[in-house]
Amino acid sequence: MRQIGIGIVGGGYMGKAHSVAMGAVGAVFDTAHRPSLEMICTTTEQGAAEKARAFGFKRSTADWRTLVDDPAVEAVVIASPQETHQEIALAAFDKGKHVLCEKPLGLGLEQSRTMAVAATKSGCIHMVGFNYIRTPASQLARQIIARGEIGDITFLRAEHTEDFLADPQMPGDWRTQGRANGNMGDLSPHILNAALALAGPITSLVADIATVHKTRGGLAVGNDDQSAIMCRFASGAMGQLFISRIATGRKMGYAYEIYGTKGSIRFDQEDQNALWLYRAEGPEERRGFAKILTGPLHPDYKPFCLGPGHGTGYQDQIIIEARDFLQAIHEGKPRWPTFDDGVLVNQLIEASWRSHETRQWIQLSDV
Description:
Shape: globular
């Protein structure tokens, strides 16, 4: 066991989640590397000092360069707005420091590719924070698919739907300005990553993207509300994805249905501890979807709880993510999802915008 110095840039929603995860991961998973919370960076010195006290960091700063340059910081977690990701990551790699970066990787495809090249060149560990795919249920779904239990995938339907901007009377703010903060920049990365993880590479797509509520509080909305994507996977399977921040009634609609030649799978993040599995076997009158409640026999469940069906939560996903990051550092080997996987997601986002703007199918090899 050895201590590893952690620096976190950002003290908001995700900054807190990563701070808590790094504080807990050693006890939960008995990791070979035990995080030492060295420094946290937020936008003001006073705010950073308050976050350091609240989250248990030794020191604080309002300048991310101070954090990256600090010799006690060996690994950097980037939990700041995405327009800051590239500069911080490149500086960290230049100092030989490992990086866990929140999604989406960069401010567009070009930045993401630049970050991935720098990550590989540095020889450092690099990961992207796609936490939802790490639930025990979704890890089980990936195992079932990989083992061929539902046969060859023929169709995937997936969505990431929330309703935090469903009310057209809600005033506009930073979320309604700038393409990067819109529905495609904010919500789509998670479900696009899920589609790739569950069904493999996507070769082509066609997308329609819409701003439904054109104004909020008298101000013009500067980004998109929802999108629909049809795609083809390299395997030949078809796909359909829906992403929306105005899906009334949906709180965490990260969900998918996957149909195969021998069975099918259903999952909904609003019931994240259950996976529904259909097997096309046995007497027809006895067939039906079986609800599998996750428990200690499923991936990454037992370290949190010994009771089947008791469940894991959102913060546990971030702790699993922290374990993966530390394990990759310990082994000196990249661990999915790397910056290269983050590039694939940004490539799909860019392809979706090109399709929407040209009103045609886009080949991913051309993006």
